[in-house]
Amino acid sequence: MKISNIKPAEKLITFLKTNIANVAIYGKDKPTSGLPDAYIEIYQNGATRMIASQLGFTGAYVIVSVSVKLLSTGGVNTVMEDKLLGMIDSYFENNRSLAVDNYEYALDANSTVYQGHGLYAGYSTKAFNLQVKIYKNS
């Protein structure tokens, strides 16, 4: 397994773009202007680490950030936020993990990293970690 081939964020982005319709999902390609009313961002959060070299798998975290434009009153659009979070939650119900190729994603017990206003002007944001196990290709 080459370090340059370990791309947990990109695998999850590709999977979600294929399986969630009508939602903008960004990684390194997020535009600096003209953002939609709601979108999801995914990045690797921290270093990749060896978990069990004999078994051939490593681990990492990806951060998933859901951003929704604030209402004209300045309040959080909880309906849209809950809708986007529900789309992601559906893959992890009942402590299920999500397998995509040789990557396995799971909600971390202490997954919420940030919730509130202010990461991007005019948006509410909820960001959480997913734990990733990366298995060596057979």
Looking at this protein, list some descriptive labels.
138 residues, alpha+beta, 7-stranded mixed β-sheet, 2 helices, 42% strand, elongated
Could you describe the 3D structure shown?
The mean pLDDT is 86. With 138 residues, the chain is an alpha+beta fold. Strand 6 (103-117) and strand 7 form a beta hairpin. Strands 1, 2, 3, 4, 5, 6 and 7 form a 7-stranded mixed β-sheet that branches. The chain contains 2 helices and 7 strands, in the order H-E-E-E-E-H-E-E-E.
Taking all Cα atoms into account, the compactness measure Rg is 16 Å
Helical segment count: 2
What sort of overall outline do the alpha carbons produce when their principal axes are compared? elongated
Mean pLDDT: 86
* Straight-line N-to-C gap: 10 Å
The fraction of residues assigned to DSSP E strands is 35-45%
Specify the structural class: alpha+beta
Major β-sheet annotation: 7 strands, mixed
* Fraction of residues in H or I helices: 10-25%
User: Which H/E pattern describes the elements?
Assistant: HEEEEHEEE
Number of strands: 7
Low-confidence stretches: none
Write the layout of secondary structure elements.
Elements lengths: L7 H12 L4 E3 L11 E7 L4 E4 L4 E13 L8 H12 L8 E3 L2 E15 L5 E13 L3
Parallel strand pairs: 1-2
Antiparallel strand pairs: 2-4, 3-4, 4-7, 5-6, 6-7
Question: Care to give the gist of this entry?
Answer:
The chain has 138 residues and is of the alpha+beta class. It contains two helices and seven strands; from the N terminus they run αββββαβββ.
